[in-house]
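GHMP kinase C-terminal domain-containing protein
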Amino acid sequence: MLSEGLLVSAPGKVILHGEHAVVHGKVALAVALNLRTFLRLQPHSNGKVGLNLPNIGIKRAWDVARLQLLDTSFLERGDITEQVEKLKEVAGLPRAVPTASAWLCWPSCTCTCPSAGSRGRPAQPGRCRVVGAAHRGRLGLQCRLLVCLAAALLTLCEEIPNPLKGGEAASRWTAEDLEVINEWAFQGERVIHGSPSGVDNAVSTWGGALRYQQGKISPLKRPPALKILLTNTKVPRSTKALVLGVRNRLLKFPEIVAPLLTSMDAISLECERVLGEMAAAPAPEHYLVLEQQSAPGAEGPLWCPLLRSLHHSLSLAHSHHSVPSCCQHGVCAPVVNGSCSSELIDMNQHHLNALGVGHASLDQLCQVTMAHGLHSKLTGAGGGGCGITLLRPGLQGPEVEATKQALTDCGFDSWETSIGAPGISIHAAASLDAPIRQALDGL
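Structure:
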């Protein structure tokens, strides 16, 4: 049982290539971002179980004695909508509470219920758990929380063993246990989104990079460690409306839009090929495909500074505190921080604009980063939202900061991070850096 607390983290996710095309049966490549959500379960003895997720406005507490009297058999009958409404009633939540918030609350209170249907043991009577989370970036936040809650509570109830051994900074669960975590997180995704693809929870669970097509998810083995900027334009949009808009455009102009989708499929496949070759044996020609012009201020073709920076990049690939060295899945190949082709990035962005999912804010993002010699595209549904920018190898810190400042001047938020991060992990408290510890301690 939990005695000193439990700390887990899960990565964010972006679509590298294949947005919208994937809805029409084409390939999409999704990658884990090293912008992580950290969640802590902490034992207390005040007779309450609490949930504190300040980033999404959730702070609730329940009496353990009352929870142990709850009848949770309603979870075994009826559709999801009925279950969620009953869930709000049982958990004492207002009907106005969003479905996502209600579902995030539910595991926290049922972890103390003997009737919750667990194969393992419920939390010890009279002992309660305060759940808190700290985040880096908000992209895919709800899914990250679902994966963290699934892993932490399954471990708490001894459905899966705690893989962290004494003296280890971090660890991960076995493939069999990760499947259990992924399935529980997927059920939460179903409540929130209705008919999710399963990509979001799979990426946060397994990490690395995944290929998705027509319901089939397969990992890319040892994707290269690549650095990007993730930028939030802060422009709200409706994913449902954007997906419908593409479908309507396809119906209206089938001979124009269908070839666009086929071309986007080819872009994803070419990116997958380049990533595979880079992971196996990075070579100058890969980067010539990526960037066919000289780097700003550099002498000669770009691959010269790339090669000069290779050793430095290799050493950095394992230095980030939130990438456990013992990860069993989703480990990035230690290669120079390169990228899938800037040409592919540019072509895909133009294709997405042609599908009608671009936005003036995303055009501005592309123009600003292009002025700094970098290449960007939207990620996700488009219509605003977020974009990704490839950071070429050898790019100096001042250049990155200048780009981030230019994006900030546009009113955007920007984070420097890497892709191919490990999936759900468990940590020793001492292994976390000071800002994360402070954020969790402040909850």
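Residues 112-120, 122-128, 290-340 have pLDDT under 50 and may be disordered.
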